[in-house]
Every structure is written in structure tokens, then in C-alpha cells.
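Q: Given only this backbone (357 positions), what sequence would you predict?
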């Protein structure tokens, strides 16, 4: 029996609704497979916890989470809590202390989904973003000089270590090698960021010499933003720094047709620590409590969790089931033009999983 201990962090708002569906789907996978077991433990951390206790999660949270095989995250955020509190109080400590240096986001336009790019006749969109997740522009290095005076200066320093840059680029080459197109695009801004990004470009060239079979190219981030809208079908695997990856992946999720469809994984490839899987959307207070959040992003995150643990057969099955569910156009939430509730989509996925054998 392959036993996986999963920490479930539903968080806030619709994170709670979609995580319930993700857990349901994992249970269905275990029922179908028979050889897999998931042990879930739920932790009520997030902004509601913060409003009561003054911190997003307890002091020993990281020690507790470290004993799990993976973390399933919903979303954290609340209009009454500053975004940097939610980020620095929970998400960044987890990503950084568990060395989840890879943020993976697959972007695929599925048949039947209306992409905002549909008028361009763009169809064949299937790419994966590999975002550096622990350093770069989000290292938290900086400060304020002469605070409150007319001579005030705010500094935010990007930190790009050779170790950190090499390992993310190598990981990206490895991802590209497993895909049919074997094409890797590195995104920087070397003309303006003349230290960090020039360094990144150098390391990209160096690491690339170990991957002669990969078609590797480079774009400036401004041009890349435009190309993702005009020619998204040109790209396969895209690697970028923390900040650029953050921005470009939001373009990616917009192309997919709904933010509710996107999934992402924060991965420690060494398996020393748990990796964390989440939908890309936030807590979405505007639709909280309405039962209409699309759970397919969270369910896509479950697919990535299965892949991470080498459960490839079940991961592939789940991907097929998600695609069938969408193309059937019957049980869809309002963001995709349907009238289904969150749990009806989850139930439909479960039915399809169990019917597959
Ligand atoms: P946060 O502060 O936690 O990031 P947010 O207000 O930025 O929350 P997002 O989750 O980024 O909210 O959502 C942006 C928009 O997309 C919202 O209008 C929301 O209703 C919609 N949305 C987000 N997730 C989903 C989903 N799973 N299903 C349907 N609509 C969604
Ligand atoms: Mg947001």
C-alpha cells in the first residue's frame, strides 16, 4: 500500500469550497486504484486564524507540516488583511523553508473553452511555466532609509544565487526534455537589469550545454508579454524568475479561459520536504459563500500532486477525466457559462473517475 500523508490547508473564502472537492477527488482516486491510501489532516490556518490569533499560522506550523508528504492548499486572503501579511505570514515561509524552489503551472486551452484569444483563431495552446519560487525579486531583501523624511528611499534587492539560478534552469531543461516539442524559453530583462538578469542569461547558456537536444531561446519579458497574447502557440516550456514568472503566469491563466481552471505546484524536487499544490486563484471574496467557485483548478492541483509522487497512471486518468468533463459542457460553473454548483462539478469528476474502470 502506498500511503500518503496530506496536510490540507483550505485557507479562506472559496479556498475552503474547492479544497473539499479536491479531497473528494483524491478519495475517489484511492478507491479506484486500491494500492494508494491518502491520510488527510486539516489545519484551519489563514486570515480567519490571523484575525483571532494575530498570526496566519501557529509558531510550530512548519514543524507540523514537515512531517507530511504533501500539502494541499486552497487560498488565503481577506479584504481586511493586507496581502503582504498573508504572503509573508504563510505562503512564503512554507515555500522558502521547504525549499519549494520550483513553481510549476501548466497552461492548456481545452476544447469547448472560450479563450479571450478565440478571435485570433488560436487553438493549440499547451505550455508549462517554470517559475523560480524562493529567491530573486521576492527575497525580501531591502529596507527604508530616512523613513518619513523628504529624503526617504525604499530599496528592494533581487537576490540571484548561482545555486538557486542553476537549479531552476536545470529543472526547466528537464521538464522540456520530457515533452514532445523539447523547446525551452527563458525570460529575462537583461537590457535593464544589468546584474541579475545578465547573470541569469549566462547560467542559462551554461546549463544549456548539457541539453543539446533542447531548442532553447530567450525573450525579454516585455516582448514575451506581447507574444503570449499574439502567438501563445509558439511556446512549450517557459522559465522565468520569481517576479516575471508571477506576472506571466497570470497572462497564462487568462488565456485558459477562466482563472478557476489553473493549477500550480510548489515543488521541492529533492523530496526532503513536502511540496505544496494549489489552484492559482485567490480566496475570491466576491463569490464567497455562493457555492459557484470552479473547483477544477484545485482538482488540477491534485493531478499535479499525483504526478509528483510518481502516480502517473492516476494522474493521467485524472487529466483525461477533467478534459472529458469540460468538453461534455454539461456540468460547468458560471465562470465557464454553466449553472452548476462547486460540489456538482466535484461529484461529476468523482463519478467519471469511478466509472473509468
Ligand atoms: P485574493 O486576494 O485571495 O487573491 P482575489 O480577490 O484576488 O483574492 P482571485 O481569486 O484572484 O481573487 O479572483 C479574481 C476574480 O476571479 C474574482 O472576480 C473571482 O470571482 C474570480 N474567480 C477566482 N477564482 C475563481 C473560481 N475558482 N471560480 C470562479 N471564479 C473565480
Ligand atoms: Mg489576487
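A: Predicted residues:
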Amino acid at each position: 500500500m502506498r500511503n500518503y500523508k496530506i496536510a490540507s490547508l483550505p485557507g479562506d473564502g472559496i479556498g475552503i469550497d474547492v479544497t473539499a472537492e479536491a479531497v473528494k477527488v483524491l478519495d475517489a482516486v484511492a478507491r479506484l486504484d486500491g494500492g494508494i491510501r491518502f491520510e488527510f489532516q486539516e489545519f484551519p490556518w489563514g486570515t480567519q486564524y490571523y484575525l483571532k490569533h494575530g498570526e496566519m499560522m501557529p509558531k510550530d506550523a512548519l514543524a507540523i507540516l514537515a512531517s507530511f508528504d504533501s500539502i494541499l492548499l486552497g487560498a488565503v486572503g481577506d479584504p481586511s488583511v493586507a496581502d503582504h501579511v498573508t504572503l509573508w505570514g504563510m505562503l512564503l515561509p512554507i515555500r522558502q523553508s521547504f525549499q519549494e524552489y520550483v513553481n510549476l503551472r501548466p497552461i492548456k486551452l481545452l476544447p469547448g473553452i472560450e479563450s479571450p484569444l478565440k478571435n485570433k483563431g488560436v487553438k493549440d495552446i499547451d505550455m508549462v511555466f517554470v517559475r523560480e519560487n524562493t529567491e530573486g525579486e521576492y527575497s525580501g531583501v531591502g529596507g527604508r532609509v530616512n523613513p518619513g523624511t523628504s529624503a526617504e528611499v525604499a530599496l528592494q534587492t533581487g537576490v540571484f544565487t548561482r545555486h538557486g539560478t542553476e537549479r531552476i534552469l536545470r529543472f526547466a531543461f528537464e521538464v522540456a526534455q520530457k515533452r514532445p516539442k523539447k523547446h525551452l524559453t527563458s525570460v529575462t530583462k537583461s537590457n535593464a537589469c544589468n546584474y541579475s538578469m545578465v547573470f541569469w542569461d549566462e547560467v542559462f547558456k551554461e546549463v544549456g550545454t548539457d541539453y543539446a537536444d533542447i531548442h532553447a531561446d530567450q525573450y525579454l519579458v516585455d516582448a514575451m508579454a506581447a507574444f503570449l497574447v499574439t502567438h501563445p502557440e509558439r511556446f512549450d516550456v517557459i522559465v522565468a524568475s520569481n517576479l516575471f514568472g508571477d506576472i506571466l503566469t497570470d497572462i497564462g491563466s487568462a488565456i485558459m479561459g477562466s482563472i478557476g481552471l489553473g493549477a500550480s505546484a510548489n515543488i521541492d524536487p529533492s523530496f526532503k520536504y513536502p511540496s505544496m499544490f494549489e489552484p492559482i486563484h485567490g480566496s475570491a471574496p466576491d463569490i464567497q459563500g455562493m457555492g459557484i467557485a470552479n473547483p477544477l483548478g484545485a482538482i488540477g492541483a491534485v493531478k499535479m500532486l499525483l504526478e509528483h509522487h510518481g502516480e502517473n497512471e492516476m494522474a493521467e486518468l485524472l487529466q483525461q477525466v477533467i478534459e472529458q468533463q469540460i468538453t461534455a459542457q454539461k456540468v460547468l460553473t458560471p465562470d465557464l457559462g454553466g449553472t452548476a454548483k462547486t460540489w456538482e462539478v466535484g461529484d461529476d469528476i468523482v463519478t467519471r473517475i469511478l466509472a473509468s474502470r
